[in-house]
Write a structure and sequence with these properties.
Blueprint: H1 2-41, H2 45-56, H3 69-105, E1 118-121, H4 127-136, E2 141-145, E3 157-160, H5 166-171, E4 179-182, H6 187-200, E5 205-210, H7 213-221, E6 226-229, H8 230-243, H9 247-256, E7 260-266, H10 276-280, E8 286-292, E9 295-297, E10 311-317
Parallel strand pairs: 1-2, 1-4, 2-3, 4-5, 5-6
Antiparallel strand pairs: 7-10, 8-9, 8-10
Helix pairs in contact: 1-2, 1-3
Length: about 325
C-alpha cells in the first residue's frame, strides 16, 4: 500500500506537468499555424485562428481552406501537431480522475474537509446504522477503519488504517472536527484511540461505544464523558421490556421516526430557578429530562430545580 501511495503521488505530479506542457504546445502550434496561414493565404490573423481551431478540432467546415501547397503543408502540420496532443490531454485527465477515485476508495486520499465534520474511528457492526442516520441528516463524516464498508457513501471521506495507530489518528486531524465517535470492536482499541484523540484534541467532544461499564468509567477518567456500554444498555432494555412489554417499542419510536427528533436546549435565565415539572407544562415539545451536574434527571423520583447552563432533553417535531 505505501508503494502504491508513492507511485500515485508521482503519477499525479507528472500528469499535472504533462497536461500543462501539452496544452502549451498545442496553443503554440495553433498560434504559429494561424500566423503562417494568414501570411501565405493572404487572410487576416483572426480568420487564421478560426481556420486553425476548426482544423485542430477536426470540425472542418470547409469555408476557409488552403489554396496552395504551402497552405496544405501548414494544415498537415497543424493537424499532426494538435489532434494527438489534445487526445493525450483528455487521456491524462481521465486517468487522473480514475486514480483519484481509486485513492478515495482505498482510503488513501487524505484531503479532508477543512472543518465541521464528524470523525468515526473503528468498524463496529452498529456503524452501518450510524452512517445511514448521519447521511440522512446531511452531516459530513470522516471514517477511520481498516477496511472501507460497502455502505459508506461517496460523499463521506475514508482513511484506511488501524485506528489504534497514533499516526493514523493524527492524519484524521481530530483538532478540526466537530465531534468524534470511537466505535472499535475491541475495548482495548477503544481506550488506545481515546488516549490518542485526547492528546491531539483535548477540547473535542468525544463519544465512545464500549462493551462494559468498567471501560466506560475508564474512558470517563480520560475525559470521554459520552459513553455507551452496549452490554449495560441491552441488559437494561431487556429487563424493562420484561416489566413493560411495550417499553422497547417506545425506545425504538424515539429514535426511528423521521417525524420528530431529539434535541438538547440550554436552560436560559427565563427558566433558571424553576422546577422541571413546571417547565414541562409550558415548554414546546416533549421534555424527557434535564442534564445537570454530569447526570440526566428524568424528574420521576425527584423534581430538580433548573439552573442556567443545564440542558433540557426534548423531543420536537422535525422541521
Amino acid at each position: 500500500m505505501p508503494l502504491f501511495l508513492i507511485a500515485a503521488s508521482l503519477v499525479r505530479g507528472v500528469n499535472r506537468y504533462r497536461v500543462a506542457s501539452l496544452l502549451a504546445f498545442a496553443c503554440a502550434v495553433l498560434v504559429i499555424g494561424a500566423a503562417l496561414f494568414s501570411l501565405t493565404q493572404h487572410v487576416s490573423f483572426g480568420i487564421g485562428i478560426y481556420w486553425a481551431v476548426t482544423t485542430a478540432t477536426t470540425v472542418g467546415y470547409g469555408d476557409v481552406t488552403p489554396h496552395n501547397t504551402i497552405g496544405r503543408v501548414i494544415a498537415i502540420a497543424v493537424m499532426l501537431g494538435t489532434i494527438p496532443v489534445v487526445g493525450a490531454v483528455f487521456a491524462l485527465v481521465a486517468g487522473a480522475s480514475a486514480m483519484n477515485r481509486m485513492r478515495r476508495l482505498l482510503g488513501m486520499d487524505r484531503i479532508l474537509p477543512p472543518d465541521n465534520y464528524t470523525l468515526i474511528y473503528g468498524s463496529h457492526p452498529v456503524l452501518s446504522r450510524v452512517l445511514a442516520e448521519l447521511e440522512r441528516s446531511g452531516q459530513r463524516v470522516v471514517l477511520v477503519a481498516a477496511a472501507r464498508p460497502p455502505d459508506l457513501g461517496d460523499e463521506h471521506h475514508f482513511i484506511a488504517g488501524d485506528p489504534s495507530d497514533e499516526s493514523v489518528v493524527r492524519a484524521s486531524h481530530p483538532e478540526r472536527a466537530d465531534r468524534a465517535l470511537i466505535a472499535c470492536e475491541s475495548d482495548a482499541d477503544t481506550l488506545v484511540v481515546a488516549v490518542s484523540v485526547r492528546a491531539l484534541a483535548s477540547d473535542l467532544e468525544v463519544y465512545a461505544l464500549t462493551q462494559s461499564p468498567s471501560v466506560a468509567r475508564a474512558l470517563a477518567d480520560l475525559g470521554v464523558t459520552h459513553t455507551l456500554a452496549t452490554d449495560e444498555l441491552i441488559g437494561h432494555t431487556l429487563a424493562k421490556s420484561l416489566e413493560a412489554p411495550q417499553s422497547g417499542d417506545v425506545l425504538l419510536a424515539l429514535v426511528e421516526s423521521d417525524a420528530y427528533r431529539m434535541v438538547e436546549t440550554e436552560v436560559g435565565a427565563d427558566l433558571a430557578g424553576q422546577q422541571l415539572s413546571a417547565v414541562r407544562g409550558r415548554a414546546g415539545g416533549l421534555i424527557l429530562g434535564v442534564y445537570q451536574n454530569g447526570r440526566v434527571a428524568l424528574g420521576v423520583t425527584s423534581d430538580p430545580v433548573l439552573a442556567a447552563g443545564d440542558r433540557l432533553i426534548q423531543v420536537q417535531r422535525a422541521s
